[in-house]
Specification:
- By secondary structure, the chain is of the alpha+beta class.
- The protein has two domains: about 1-55, no CATH class; about 70-100.
- The protein has helices at about 45-65, 80-100, and strands spanning about 5, 10-15, 15-25, 30-40.
- β2 (about 10-15) and β3 (about 15-25) form a beta hairpin.
- The radius of gyration is 19 Å and the shape is elongated.
- About 5% of the residues are buried.
Length: about 100
């Protein structure tokens, strides 16, 4: 769990050359499952890029539907929306840091 395995060489998936790597992760219920990453670039680079992208996806989910619900705002004036977004981002970062601390 938490370790990654990168297969050396190029493999073909549906006729397309790619690199393969995988790891074991825990799902929402805490059960272990496999995560397989298929990429067109170096497998180690792809895993780092995927981790960064997942951080962004998690942030968007938190801002949109899992907590802050920023899309439910009825604000339409650009300056007010910028202020609202700035405040929500500060709150999001605060919650993120508290989560890391805990």
């Amino acid at each position: 769990l938490g370790e990654c395995k990168h297969l050396s060489g190029i493999y073909y998936v549906n006729g397309q050359p790619c690199y393969l790597s995988g790891s074991k992760i825990k799902d929402k219920e805490g059960k272990t499952e496999f995560q397989i990453l298929v990429s067109y670039c170096n497998a180690e680079e792809a895993l780092d890029m995927y981790r960064q992208r997942w951080q962004i996806e998690t942030m968007f989910k938190g801002l949109k539907s899992s907590g802050f619900n920023i899309e439910d705002s009825h604000v339409r004036i650009r300056e007010r929306m910028a202020n609202l977004f700035a405040i929500v981002m500060i709150a999001y970062v605060w919650c993120y840091l508290v989560g890391i601390y805990i």
